[in-house]
């Protein structure tokens, strides 16, 4: 039995417009991952382009849109996504396409850099490590594991609309990862930099990020924490602002 | 396509080029970030996609958290023994004694280590670890961030490079080294994968931080990108490689998929069983059992399988049992392993054992360097530095791992020697170090291979030749080796060389052409494979990971030395092992048992 695989193709040197190319593929006897399927197709047509590296779901290279839902090709079994013997593979939505399934992630990385994704603590440590209790360390679970695959941010309509101004779920998760770290001393500055109407408030909680995250993380919850910290900050400082977020 | 030459490509000038954006490369660039030197990290993938991300169990270092009495000298002893005595003791001493500084730096940078009740970094037991120079029982010396230590380390290093404003050429692929008439390395030819633009990246110091090449085997824990690009370039340029016969087969790769299952599983109390449910490591290593050296455990597993006690229908693997640890321990300490097992083995370790098999994991050999990362060749039996060339991490052979690496020592190697190379290069450049310019002919020479590939109108398909190469290596240069088989393997490789030089690049386009990248990666794999094959055939003894059926014993009289493969003559020379640490007495060779 064969399955039809439709792959988004676009080579800027040759194609005026992108198109879907169909491949008939012999249904494998054992279940394989979508990445392996792509690798096998690439043996037949070496011009198919996609990113891949670790092939085990930890490097975040092969995020793509698989039958309408963002995911990592390397840990998505064919059996879990194929519908009516058909599979559509497209690049992550909302970012410019470089070629085929490869997107330009510049804007995604720029948002990551914007949140200062590094520990800030100017107090020198004389000897050894900074201490952190297991309970304090537990607060980083569910945050630090992000692999920057962009599945979440590129499934978010708010990010599609304002990729330059809305930080997006991936980078907001990392913003909260440093806010939540007992060793970081710049919580106030971090919150301040997110307090404009766009950076965090463009999240409307539609939860696409949560439903696609291949690592089972919950950016929506982290965003909620940031929002409530911002609100209680405002209350504490007794500042009246007109929230223009819409 | 136009033939590329020195006058029609761009030249980009730097003080320092770091080729590779994994742990060692980014630790080097971080050290250089504040130096004022114009540095660029050239990485074929966005840095956090580098293979360091897959390291799981941890970074071994005597920070004296689990045991306040722990001593770096004990770690040094274990590492020397683990190396089967061909690790250089000056380098091992440097790594183990400088280690705590390097690990605490990572913590200060924000690495989210797991913690003990008193707030210190959590350490777990790993294979080959002991207290009191092997006399005090099992040590717990591997610092961990759950079972995602590599991920945490790589992201932390990237984050701190962002903080310090390091310059990255992401998704740029280095093709070949440029050497001037004095045989100094003056940079690389590279292209932007995204645009296809080819450039001469000119540099006063070129650091190969390109990682391993596990993809020479068909079954490996390594990422698809681990194709030995730095070694491929240096071997093509006639620069030697050391100890290339020494490949580590990790005992626990997931059967079928090859994904790594950390040694930390056994550190936390898991153990291997055969089809009878027997904990067989008790027979092979009565003291250390499942935490013997990786080479010892891998061989024991293969023997179990060969003697018919393997598991499954084909009796071709064994099981790693973890369920007795309980769901709480597994979820807290080994969450990534649970995830991988469910995905790639369809088993939940909370209830069932994981099917595992020894799988190619780590290249102990590489470009020979000193502690400062300076690469060298041998000239009338003396080490002679190659001006302009450095190497760090898995691509380098310092050598701290000798014939067998201990678990958790690779991450330590990355940060300690990445840092050391950065410090050295900064000092050397500021005291007038550097290289002469390359001439037009030198640059054209380095473009030669790329031009041939770009001009190819027929020839062999990349994917077919790659499979053929991997099968040869898997069949003839695996866990157990013997002369007559390896001779067949070398002969087969001779046949493949012709194909490697006549690959057909089907896709000639510029933008994100992964066909071109994979073709050059295959050529790099081949150089590494050939060096491995010839070195393996000629080392006529068994030591560490190099286990020969026809020479089953260690032969210190003839082989207590490094091997040095010369690609220009395809011959193997010998190089002395350092037995002169500066702060402790050298550890003399002993019979190695666990």
Describe this structure in words.
- The complex is a heterodimer of chains A (about 250) and B (about 600).
- In chain A, the strands form two sheets. A five-stranded mixed beta sheet of chain A has the order 2-1-5-3-4, with helices on one face.
- Chain A is elongated, with a radius of gyration of 21 Å.
- Chain A is built from nine helices and seven strands.
- In chain A, a hairpin with a 2-residue loop joins strand 3 and strand 4.
- In chain A, helix 6 packs across helix 9 (about 220-235).
- Chain A has about 250 residues and is α+β, with helices and mostly antiparallel strands.
- The longest helix of chain B is centred in the last third of the chain and has 25 residues, at about 515-540.
- Chain B has helices spanning about 25-35, 70-80, 90-110, 150-165, 230-235, 265, 280-285, 295-305, 325-335, 335-345, 410-430, 440-455, 460-475, 485-500, 515-540, 555-560; strands at about 10-15, 15-20, 40-45, 60, 125-130, 140-145, 170, 170-180, 185-190, 200, 205-210, 240, 245-255, 270-275, 320, 355-365, 365-370, 375-380, 380-390, 395, 480, 545-550, 560-565, 570-575.
- Chain B is built from 16 helices and 24 strands.
- Chain B has a six-stranded mixed beta sheet with strand order 7-3-2-11-19-18, covered by helices on one side.
- Chain B is α/β, with parallel strands linked by helices.
Brief digest:
The complex is a heterodimer of chains A (about 250) and B (about 600). Chain A is α+β, with helices and mostly antiparallel strands and about 250 residues long.
SSE blueprint:
The complex is a heterodimer of chains A (246) and B (594).
Chain A: E1 2-9, E2 19-26, H1 34-44, E3 63-66, E4 69-72, H2 78-81, E5 86-90, E6 97-99, E7 102-103, H3 106-114, H4 134-138, H5 157-161, H6 169-179, H7 187-193, H8 208-212, H9 219-237
Helix pairs in contact in A: 3-6, 6-9
Chain B: E1 10-13, E2 16-19, H1 23-33, E3 39-43, E4 59-60, H2 72-82, H3 89-109, E5 123-130, E6 138-143, H4 149-164, E7 168-170, E8 172-179, E9 185-192, E10 198-202, E11 205-208, H5 229-236, E12 241-242, E13 247-254, H6 264-267, E14 271-273, H7 281-284, H8 294-306, E15 318-321, H9 326-333, H10 335-344, E16 354-363, E17 367-368, E18 374-379, E19 382-391, E20 396-397, H11 409-430, H12 440-455, H13 462-476, E21 480-481, H14 483-500, H15 514-538, E22 547-548, H16 556-559, E23 562-566, E24 571-575
Parallel strand pairs in B: 1-10, 2-3, 2-11, 3-7, 11-19, 17-20, 21-22
Antiparallel strand pairs in B: 4-6, 5-6, 8-9, 9-10, 12-23, 13-16, 14-15, 15-16, 18-19, 23-24
Helix pairs in contact in B: 1-4, 1-11, 2-3, 3-11, 5-15, 9-10, 13-14, 13-15, 14-15
């Amino acid at each position: 039995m064969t399955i039809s695989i439709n792959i988004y193709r676009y080579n800027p040197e040759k194609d005026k417009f992108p198109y879907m190319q169909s491949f008939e593929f012999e249904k494998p006897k054992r279940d394989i991952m979508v990445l392996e399927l792509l690798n096998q197709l690439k043996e037949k047509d070496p011009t198919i382009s996609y990113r891949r590296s670790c092939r085990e779901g930890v490097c975040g290279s092969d995020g793509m849109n698989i039958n309408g839902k963002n995911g990592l090709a390397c840990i998505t079994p064919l059996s879990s996504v194929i519908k009516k013997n058909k599979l559509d593979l497209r690049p992550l939505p909302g970012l410019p396409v470089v070629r085929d399934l490869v997107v330009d992630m510049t804007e995604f990385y720029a948002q990551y850099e914007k949140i200062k994704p590094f520990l800030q603590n100017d107090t020198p440590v004389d000897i050894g490590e900074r201490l952190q209790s297991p309970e304090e360390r537990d607060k980083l679970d569910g945050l630090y594991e992000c692999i920057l695959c962009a599945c979440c941010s590129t499934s978010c309509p708010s990010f599609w609309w304002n990729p330059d101004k809305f930080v997006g779920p991936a980078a907001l998760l990392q913003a909260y990862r440093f806010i939540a770290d007992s060793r970081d001393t710049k919580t106030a500055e971090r919150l301040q930099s997110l307090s404009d109407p766009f950076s965090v408030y463009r999240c409307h909680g539609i939860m696409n990020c949560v439903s696609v995250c291949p690592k089972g993380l919950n950016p929506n919850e982290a965003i909620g924490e940031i929002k409530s910290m911002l609100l209680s900050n405002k209350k504490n400082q007794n500042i009246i602002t007109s929230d223009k977020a819409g | 396509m136009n033939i590329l030459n020195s006058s029609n490509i761009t030249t980009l000038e730097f003080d320092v080029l770091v080729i590779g954006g994994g742990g060692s490369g980014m630790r080097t660039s971080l050290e250089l970030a504040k130096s004022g030197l114009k540095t660029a990290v050239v990485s074929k993938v966005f840095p956090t996609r580098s293979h360091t991300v897959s390291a799981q169990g941890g970074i071994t270092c005597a920070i004296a958290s689990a045991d306040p009495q722990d001593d770096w000298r004990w770690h040094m002893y274990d590492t020397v023994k683990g190396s089967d005595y061909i690790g250089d003791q000056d380098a091992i001493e440097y790594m183990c004694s400088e280690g705590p500084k390097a690990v605490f730096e990572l913590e200060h940078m924000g690495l989210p280590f797991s913690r003990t009740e008193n707030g210190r970094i959590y350490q777990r037991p790993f294979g080959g670890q002991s207290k009191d120079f092997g006399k005090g029982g099992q040590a717990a010396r591997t610092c961990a961030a759950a079972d995602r230590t590599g991920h945490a380390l790589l992201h932390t290093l990237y984050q701190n490079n962002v903080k310090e404003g390091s310059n990255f050429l992401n998704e740029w692929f280095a093709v070949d080294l440029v050497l001037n008439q004095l045989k100094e390395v003056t940079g690389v030819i590279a292209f932007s994968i995204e645009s296809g633009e080819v450039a001469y990246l000119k540099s006063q110091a070129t650091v190969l931080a390109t990682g391993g090449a596990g993809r020479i085997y068909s079954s490996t824990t390594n990422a698809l990108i681990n194709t030995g690009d730095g070694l491929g370039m240096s071997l093509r340029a006639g620069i030697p490689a050391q100890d290339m016969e020494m490949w580590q087969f990790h005992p626990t790769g997931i059967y079928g998929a090859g994904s790594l299952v950390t040694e930390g599983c056994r550190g936390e109390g898991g153990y291997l069983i055969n089809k009878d449910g027997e904990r067989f490591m008790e027979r092979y290593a009565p003291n250390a059992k499942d935490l013997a050296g990786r080479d010892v455990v891998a061989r024991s597993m293969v023997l179990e399988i060969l003697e018919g006690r393997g598991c499954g229908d084909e009796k071709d693997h064994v099981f790693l049992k973890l369920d007795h640890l309980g769901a709480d321990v597994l979820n807290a300490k080994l969450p990534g392993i649970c995830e991988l097992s469910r995905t790639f083995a369809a088993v939940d370790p909370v209830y069932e054992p994981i099917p595992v098999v020894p799988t190619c994991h780590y290249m102990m050999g590489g470009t020979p360097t000193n502690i400062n990362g300076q690469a060298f060749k041998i000239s009338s039996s003396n080490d002679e530095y190659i001006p302009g060339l450095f190497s760090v991490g898995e691509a380098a052979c310092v050598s701290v791992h000798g014939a067998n690496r201990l678990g958790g020592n690779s991450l330590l190697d990355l940060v300690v020697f990445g840092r050391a190379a950065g410090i050295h290069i900064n000092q050397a450049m500021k005291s007038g170090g550097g290289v002469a310019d390359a001439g037009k002919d030198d640059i054209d020479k380095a473009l030669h291979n790329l031009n041939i590939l770009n001009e190819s109108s027929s020839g062999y398909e990349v994917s077919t030749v790659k499979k053929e190469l991997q099968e040869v290596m898997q069949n003839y240069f695996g866990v157990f080796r013997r002369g007559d088989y390896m001779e067949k393997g070398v002969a087969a490789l001779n046949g493949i060389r012709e194909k490697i030089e006549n690959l057909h690049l089907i896709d000639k386009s510029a933008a994100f052409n992964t066909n071109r990248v994979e073709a050059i990666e295959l050529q790099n794999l081949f150089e590494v494979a050939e060096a491995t094959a010839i070195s393996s055939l000629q080392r006529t003894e068994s030591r560490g990971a190099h286990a020969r059926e026809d020479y089953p014993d260690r032969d210190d009289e003839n082989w207590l030395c490094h091997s040095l493969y010369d690609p220009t003559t395809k011959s193997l020379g010998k190089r002395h092992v350092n037995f002169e640490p500066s702060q402790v007495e050298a550890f003399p060779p002993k019979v190695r048992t666990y």
